[in-house]
Amino acid sequence: MKDLFALSKEQERMWLEWKMSLDSNSYQICLCLRLKGIFDISRLKQAILILINHYPAMRTKFIDQCGSVLQLIMPEEHDVHKYFRFIDLSYEFRSYDENTKDILIEQRLKDLLINVSPLDYPLIRFSCVKYSDCKHIFLACTHHILYDVFSDDLLIRGLSEAYNNGVISTPSDQLKYLQDYLSLDAPVSDEEVQNQAREYWKRYLQGAELHMKLGDQNVDAFGDQECQKMFVLSEDIAKKVREFIYNHRITLFIFFITVLGVLLRKYTQEKNVVFKYSVNVRPKGYKGLYGFFVNNVPMRLSFDRETNFSNLIASVRSQRKDQQRYQSYSLMDIVQDLRKDGQHIDQNSFNVEVAQREFGCDNLNLEGITGECIDLGEQFAKSDLQFLFGTSNGGIDCAFTFKCRLFSDDFMNNIKNNFLTAIEKLIENPNTSIEQIEITNQNEIERISSYGRSKNEIIFPNNIGILINQAFNLYKSSPAIVTDSENISYESLDVLATKVAAFLQSRNIPEKSLIAVMLPKGVDLVAIVLGILKANCSYVPISIDSPEDRLQHILNESGARLLFALHPLCSDISVDVISDLQKDVFLRNDLIFSEPNYDNDLAFVIYTSGSTGKPKGVLCYHKS
Residue 529 and residue 518: Cα distance in Å, rounded? Predict the structure, then answer.
């Protein structure tokens, strides 16, 4: 089928991340605009049809076939109502003044958002909400697998052109554009290029601390709710920054990356500071390609007594040049390669991030309409700490986003203020040793190990097996699983899981062994997985629709000691298969369970779709 494609490397990474956290809203993206003026809704509908027919990525449908994921570009649309809804709240709001209407609509925004999953179609939904005669809210909600920050501009500019002129100026044959890009993506999978990238990143990160210890992060906090500190550089500081980057022939991106590196050095006292940053991997000539084409790339800054701001900038500029050849190599693959080499990497590695973001709506230009972007806030943070920057209306906008439960408000105010201090002092003293420039005081550094913890932080054990036992003891008679055909309490589920753990022990399977699971959704699957974790082993989930070659590959590569499956498999499977779960496990009364010494090691291994090659195992740890 000519409109059926494999996923790009970036999409494959995003698909896997989504599969590992199906219930998370972390990857929901919503663009929100407040529009003022006489808005022509029929014209808007026509503009949306032009938009989705111009950009084939907006008509993408993801298909999961036996663990292999493909994307199908659906035919051009003629019915806008699949994609668009109009909501009129103006009558409900009629008795309020204009300021009150603005407040009320912002309070209602979260109820108007549409959550979409990669398995939904369509994957982008537009809403227009009228709440006054000349005021509307425009929403575009989609999933990150279909949208990156560089698509913001394409959507806003495209909507404006389609509304005003009935046509979009970016290359018209976007389907060929997408086909060409995905064919260009193939060389990234070339073995020689892969090996070069693998060796480059291993050398680059060798011996570096990959987790920046800011605040007290020795224990995990519950929840990833995002908080934000936004600020605009003053005219005086912005002028100094622009003059500095002009005189040193660098970009704003290189400037901010270097300043952040210095600040992290001051806080952590690490000689090597490592964080990640987002890059647009669209090749030259493909900047008008709508979709998800970004990757996260590591940046490492090394410090000694002689290091100054000028030579740090030179180092960052040189590194960026070297990295461009390898910037499409997935960060997920980098982590896997480092783990295979024995480097310790936990879920907090690369926990600080830098990204460029447009805070304003400079490219919004609807005829007879003025507009502004609304920050919806309260998203789910994917990094412990993220620095964002961008330009709008001639100014330089910045923000720190962070996990609310990891950092106190005071702590983040200090980071923001010290960041501004660092900008000024580094511009004034570019050739002075970083060690001699005072940005944070000693008292602050001494307190940093405990200063970042929120007072209401909830601490959980760092092993799922312990957490399972706590839940079983706490909830006992409460329902654990309820479906149309099954209803089981925590207490009964504990009995089944304990039998699974005891069964594994009876077969002398060592702790930390990998156990494969190929079962349909239901109580049996949950009990088997919980029992594996209770025995301090790790599980390897395998789709029941997996073809034989995929199953065999996963079993061989993972080294699984056992396979739980619903029925005997006809092929020559390389491990023992347990298919009669009732007889072999659940109905046995002779099994004795001995509680193991739980650790925070491997919890499970999940395999990629393999749509661009052989499936790869991703290691997921208990602390994650």
Answer: 11
